[in-house]
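User: I'm curious whether this sequence folds into something compact or stays loose and floppy. Could you predict its structure so I can see for myself?
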Amino acid sequence: MLRKQRIEALTDGVIAIVITLMVLEIKAPYINGNIDMGALILQIVTYGFSFLIIAIIWLNHYHLLTNAAQLSTKQIWINYMLLFCISLIPLPTRELGEHFGNPNSHALYGVVLGLTSVFYSLFHWAIDDSIKHIHKTERKKFSIKNWSSVVLYFSASIFSYLSVYVSASIFILIPMLYFIPSRKILSPNEI
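Assistant: Here's the prediction. I'll summarize afterward.
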């Protein structure tokens, strides 16, 4: 069985690379030889938002791993799938930043973040039993919140074809559910 620290190190490395790739995707757009500041700001805001989402995933993931006694093979494979989905985030981030008005860019962003959320939810579910200090009712609340975000991300993809502003609003809403990790998920030493 792999040591938990190796999974933590792998996760940290993948996330660091993903964040680096996202920032490298920001290209200054030009119109008639001048930088289009509006388009550049939109790319930076989109990057910042994706950075925030990845930071929230990493922070909650960190607290889950910190409180787990050890990891099973199933948990490790779910973590790999989560990392794969996170590694896809730079593509829709670039597309959304460059083509905000295009519903396809919103749909792609929602699908990738929806899949990421699916594997985060599965990871949370798989690791729940090894976290002893969380009561069963709290686990159920976490599960509802996690699966609600999955539904919201995929809904945002569908709504993007009605209005990109509706999908963008849903994208903004979801991180608010996770911005500060619940005190219940923190170990008794962290509170």
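Summary: The radius of gyration is 18 Å. The mean pLDDT is 88.
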